[in-house]
Design goal:
This protein is mostly helical. The protein contains nine helices and no strands. Helix 5 packs across helix 9. The radius of gyration is 19 Å and the shape is globular.
Length: about 190
């Protein structure tokens, strides 16, 4: 059945979408590299290469945990690289929450949606605030000292944080553009955001 749809595929848009997905992974690698190098020595080419490989591992594991394998494959300080990975994931979720909030404000009047978004944001903040206890519990070791996440976060300079946020926004714009192009290639009517 899928083969039937392939002959109607608009290959120029599909190819462009695939190109943007490769660019997306390179941008993710750049974001991780420029963040992580503030805390530990890591190799630029290896970081980019791993960001092109780890999405495959992420698809093959529950909750995309395979993507976290870069923490161990990069060879730097694990705690510092772990912080960078958690910050990446957290910033992605926060940006998606902000986009969701704007969508809800603009397109609906659902009080339940407002409440859900606020509750998710509160849960994320609590998890970050108590992240060392949660990680120590799951690792069954006392590896993370109190407020380690906040300690690493405060070591970032404003310029570094601004670059990280800019990368995050551009990454998500490229992602939405890729999805939009895939939709066009399959003649599916979807909006950009």
């Amino acid at each position: 059945d899928a083969v039937k749809y392939l002959k109607f595929l608009r290959w120029e848009y599909f190819t462009l979408a695939l190109l943007f997905l490769v660019i997306l992974e390179i941008l993710k690698g750049l974001r991780y590299y420029y963040l992580a190098r503030n805390y530990t020595e890591i190799d630029f080419k290896r970081t980019i290469a791993l960001h092109l490989i780890t999405p495959i591992l992420g698809r093959a594991t529950p909750s995309k945990l395979g993507e976290s394998s870069k923490i161990f494959m990069l060879g730097g300080k694990k705690k510092e690289l772990g912080f960078c990975y958690i910050l990446e994931r957290t910033s992605d979720v926060i940006l998606l929450l902000i986009i969701s909030l704007f969508s809800v404000l603009i397109f609906t009047q659902l009080v339940f949606a407002y409440i859900a978004i606020v509750l998710i944001a509160i849960i994320i903040l609590i998890i970050l605030w108590k992240s060392e206890k949660i990680l120590n519990f799951f690792l069954k070791e006392n590896l993370f000292e109190k407020r380690w996440f906040v300690g690493f976060l405060t070591r970032l300079k404003l310029k570094q944080l601004a670059r990280f946020i800019l990368y995050t926004v551009v990454i998500w714009l490229v992602f939405f553009l890729s999805v939009y192009l895939i939709g066009i290639s399959m003649d599916i009517k979807i909006s950009f955001l």
